[in-house]
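User: I'm writing a tutorial on reading structure tokens. Could you give me a worked example: one chain, its sequence, then its tokens, then a sentence or two explaining what the tokens reveal?
Assistant: Sure. Here is the example chain.
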Amino acid sequence: AKIIEVKEKKRMPPEARLALLKQIIAQMNATMTTTGNYYLPIPKAGQVTIDCSIIPVIEFANGMTVFLDLENRAHTNLKKMITNYWKNFNLVNIDTNDDIFNILKKVFTTTKTYDIIRNENPLTIGTRPRMEIMVDWLIVKPIPGQQSKSVVQGLRPIYENNVLLPKSIKNYAQKNGFMITEFSEESGIVGKPEELYSLPSIPVFPTTSAKDFSYALVSYLGLNAEKDIEIQLFDTVKDGFNLSIKADVLVNKDDRKYVIYSQSLSQQFTNALKQAGHETIFVSDGDSPKNTMGNVLSGLGIPFVYENFVFSGPEKNQAPYALKFNGTKINQDLYVVDFDMDSELRGLLQEVWSAKIARY
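And here are its predicted structure tokens:
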């Protein structure tokens, strides 16, 4: 006969459970007091003194106050007295067996301002880049007069330590108004330390003119380039007349010369340049930087692709998140975008995917 071993669910120590609850509450713009005394005046009867180390007090921004009776010690009369005199004050009984979700359910059922629900679908946070993230539980707040609910906070129980979210992902969520709390069912609050990325400032290609943009782009790609160069096409000694032409940008690549022009040239000039061993690339100030970039890269034979890129955490054995944005990928590792990439996410992309980011 098979012996089935039943693993007992590990319980979080009371202090860790309280610290976790305190952090979750603090991230909802509420306060939780676990030390000192709380005085509740009872009309015509004096006051009740509550020891916050035994019965912590949660005060929400909307004036709702909840007393947590952690060890079921409060007298039934106290509960009655509180609810009789104060409609915004409630006493909630907490058992030693209650996990963090049960405690929050009890508190939210009493206050009716929030709700805690299981989550099955990835949440979308931010726009550029767009982040998709999976969290197991959501604290939500009903929007008055609407069917929908606004998400206040996400809770992620961690079962193995390696699936903690990178700090930059949590910080990005926070910048977009969404707090994420991670915790271990055994030890309470957990989280990765802050990541310190030593990145140079983001390269920015100027969009003032097609000439400036092209020059900045090819220089950043490490090509030998010069701006506003006179190119001698004919000379008096050899040809009997002198003709030079001014190029916006001259690029040397693989022993070939490329001339970038933002003015239109007649066919004769283009032919003369070709005879003198120069390839011509035309760009226009009327074009979008994206198209200018495409023209320059195509002309120089540099591989590139414009699309919506997805960087998936699980593909790199990381927590369940993905970063998505449109951009131009040049060669293997450079992504050029038209928005200001969050600096911490830029560090993460560089570290995990070796992806470099530049913008225009």
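What the tokens reveal: The mean pLDDT is 90. Residues 304 and 330 are 4 Å apart (CA to CA).
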